[in-house]
Design goal:
The chain has 140 residues and is mainly α. It has 6 helices and no strands. It has one domain.
Length: 140
């Protein structure tokens, strides 16, 4: 386990949970990123500002932390068509599953939603199967 970092992982999880709690507690909205993004297409009057602020924070926060800590920049090694195809597949899966991993896995499980618990179990099983196939059957 060369990249095992429990401290930063715990801190990150704590901050994600706090952000979800604050969003739910202040404006009564679920912190599901796909739902936040899709709510901007088309934007609803009076509803777009918090969505834009949330998404801007998702983009700005890692850049801020990287600048503050001297973390090296992220290097994207895949081709643009592959990244676009992956993004479209994720978007399709999000629609098919009625939400994304953040909405189901963080907010839905915390609310004891049976649908979210089932969706998260399926996400995790699919992820484990993918890793198994890629590492042990395809030799990546």
């Amino acid at each position: 386990m060369e990249n095992f970092t429990p401290g930063p992982a715990f801190a990150g999880g704590l901050l994600i949970g706090l952000a979800a709690l604050l969003l739910l507690g202040t404006i009564g909205r679920i912190a599901g990123v796909s739902g936040i993004l899709s709510g901007l297409l088309p934007p609803t009057a009076g509803d777009a500002s918090w969505r834009v602020a949330f998404l801007a924070g998702l983009i700005a926060a890692p850049a801020f932390v990287a600048a503050a800590t001297g973390t090296p920049p992220v290097e994207v090694t895949q081709s643009l068509p592959l990244l676009v195809a992956g993004g479209l597949l994720v978007g399709f899966g999000t629609r098919l599953g009625g939400g994304c991993t953040s909405g189901h896995g963080i907010c839905g499980i915390a609310r004891l939603s049976p649908r979210s618990i089932a969706a998260t179990a399926i996400f995790m099983a699919a992820a484990m199967a993918t890793v198994f196939v890629m590492r042990h059957m395809m030799g990546s």
